[in-house]
Write a structure and sequence with these properties.
By secondary structure, the chain is of the alpha/beta class. It is about 50% helix and about 15% strand. It contains 13 helices and 9 strands. The longest helix is centred in the middle third of the chain and has 29 residues, at about 165-190. The chain binds nicotinamide-adenine-dinucleotide. Nicotinamide-adenine-dinucleotide binds near residues 8, 11, 30, 93 and 119.
């Protein structure tokens, strides 16, 4: 069993690290938040006093931090200076492609093997060990990271070279954000045209308008399988995180010279929703901004 340093024990890392401990690994955990660290220790991880201490002598280092600036700081100041060169370095945070690529270059120049491995799936998937990991990096890095990631997920997919995991994640989420907005405005129009939402769902889910946003994650309360729409848009994937990913996609599109007008429109709409206080709601709650007539069942 491996000695694994785990840095960042928030909503996601706090569920992931205990799954590594459950699998029999020695998990040396660290977080700036004492509460987060105490909870991880209660759930089978070992307390480390700092990132420097956690990574010393580790076989693997996993990071799950808020954004690119935190990841860059933790790797540049702590991990590259204190982890053994033999350790596989795995960043599971969602960050910008450029920072991921530059960190992986820096790691390689210093003799480390590093991969980016952002996740699809929210807090429940982190808890349940059912995340999907999109891995960017060398084949060797992927092979080293895979057995560790398999303890925390249901699928581990090699997306390509350095930064490709982040690229896959933001492209997927840009598509998700845009299809969710399209689903919300379509159901609003259908209702205003006199169509029953359930009837329209039954038709469109078997016709060419079908998408995951509609069939599996319908934003209309009481239609389709149970979703956050049936819980007043609580839980699920926070609109603030969708906005974060749409901003990362816009940044990457600008750098790559790609024209992404639908992604840009979705970003603008989610920005408005977050500015109006919707940031902690599930992202499908944006239907309430598009048309306030979608009343959650308990308020009817
Ligand atoms: P979070 O804010 O709950 O947790 C981040 C943790 O990192 C916090 O506990 C914080 O104290 C800690 N931290 C920050 N700087 C640190 C440092 N220098 N050293 C040690 N610890 C430090 O965030 P989260 O919801 O767990 O998300 C983590 C990452 O996963 C983000 O990049 C996010 O975009 C991505 N993600 C989140 C979800 C989700 O549903 N929450 C889903 C998919 C991906």
């Amino acid at each position: 069993m491996a000695k694994i340093a785990f840095i960042g024990l928030g909503h996601m890392g706090g569920g992931m690290a205990p799954n590594l401990a459950k699998a029999g690994h020695e998990v040396r955990a660290f977080d700036l938040s004492e509460d987060a660290l105490a909870q991880a220790v209660e759930r089978g991880c070992t307390r480390a006093g700092s990132t420097d201490v956690a990574v010393k002598g580790a076989d693997a280092v996993v990071t799950m931090l808020p954004a690119g600036k935190h990841v860059a700081e933790v790797y540049r100041t702590h991990i590259f200076a204190h982890a053994p060169k033999s350790a596989i370095l795995i960043d599971c945070s969602t960050i910008d492609v450029a920072t991921a690529r530059s960190l992986e270059e820096k790691a390689a120049a210093a003799g480390f093997t590093m991969v980016d491995a952002p996740v699809s799936g929210g807090i429940a998937a982190a808890e349940g060990g059912t995340l999907t990991f999109m891995v960017g990096g060398s084949q060797e890095g992927f092979e080293k990271a895979r057995p560790i990631l398999e303890n925390m997920g249901k699928a581990v997919i090699h997306a390509g070279g350095a930064g490709s995991g982040q690229a896959a994640k933001i492209c997927n989420n840009m598509l998700l954000g845009a299809t969710m907005v399209a689903t919300c405005e379509t159901f609003t129009l259908a209702q205003k045209l006199g169509l029953d939402p359930q009837t329209f769902y039954d038709i469109a889910s078997k016709a060419s308008g079908q998408s995951w946003s509609m069939t599996t994650y319908c934003p209309v309360p009481g239609v389709g399988p149970e979703t956050p729409a049936d819980r007043n848009y609580e839980g699920g994937f926070a609109a603030a995180l969708m906005l974060k990913d749409l901003k990362l996609a816009a940044e990457a599109a600008k750098e790559a010279g790609a024209y992404t007008p639908m992604g840009g429109e979705a970003e603008e709409l989610f920005q408005r929703f977050v500015d109006r206080g919707g940031g902690s709601k599930d992202f499908s709650g944006i239907i309430k901004m598009i048309d306030d007539s979608w009343i959650p069942p308990e308020d009817q």
